[in-house]
Design goal:
Layout: H1 2-10, H2 13-18, E1 45-52, H3 59-69, E2 78-84, E3 94-100, H4 107-111, H5 118-145, H6 156-168, E4 175-181, E5 194-196, E6 199-200, H7 205-214, E7 225-229, H8 243-259, E8 263-267
Parallel strand pairs: 1-2, 1-4, 4-7, 7-8
Antiparallel strand pairs: 2-3, 5-6
Amino acid sequence: MRRLTALVLTLPLALLLTTPAWAGPPLPSCYAGSYLGEPARTTTHAYYLFVDQTTPLTEALKTNVANLTANWGSDGERVKIVRFSANVSGQYTELMFDDFSDPTPTQEYLYHLRTDDRPPLLDCIKARDEKFHTLLKQAVNQTLTLNNSKLPKTDLLNALKELSTKVLAPETNYEQTVLLVSDGLENSSYASFYERKTVIKSIDVHKTLSEISKFNLIPNWHGAKVYMFGLGYQRDVKIYANPKMLQPLKDFWQAYFSLGKAQLMELGTPELLVSTLK
């Protein structure tokens, strides 16, 4: 058990972040050395941070996103971070973080351990939890650093369909919460919310939803709780001074998530009014 503790403390951060997530959890479980095995997980929560790299964020907004994700990953929770962008060189959908936190041992579990094994296990769990959150914070900051307003605008509807289908759909045994960081401004052959490069046009919500439905671009979000952060945020667009521009954008995303069977918890314009997503 002491060897596992040391392993958790000495694994290089860069290696853990670049190890393919599908190969398994990047951090070894502290229960691996226990003859009782890992206790049953008392939570079935999964948290996802989806970041649109084309949405420019100020340092204050980045700090807000980091604070909203800081308490994710406790007592067996799963956490994933995915970035997505326009389909240009070097920019693509990428899994940045994927890990489970170790479940907290119950008193009954500890009772069945040998007396000498209890302190090392609890020390290992504490060390692993600290390492988990160090890596999580690093992954969030690294992902947000990649945001670039000079990138071509994201084909957002296609990106969200891919995320819903490939990330959420296989994991519906969890209670899923999504923090989507995006300005919500679609720009594709299916729909465009731009009149010109820096001018948002008036959106006919019903007509737009009807059009994108023909292309099967409203996926099933499987009841996930969704928070959208950054809606309408463009440094060069004075959208917040014009409610007539912002309201149709809000109406569109409310209808989109409703049709997609998501639980839309809040639309942040740009920031959320909640301090925690738990």
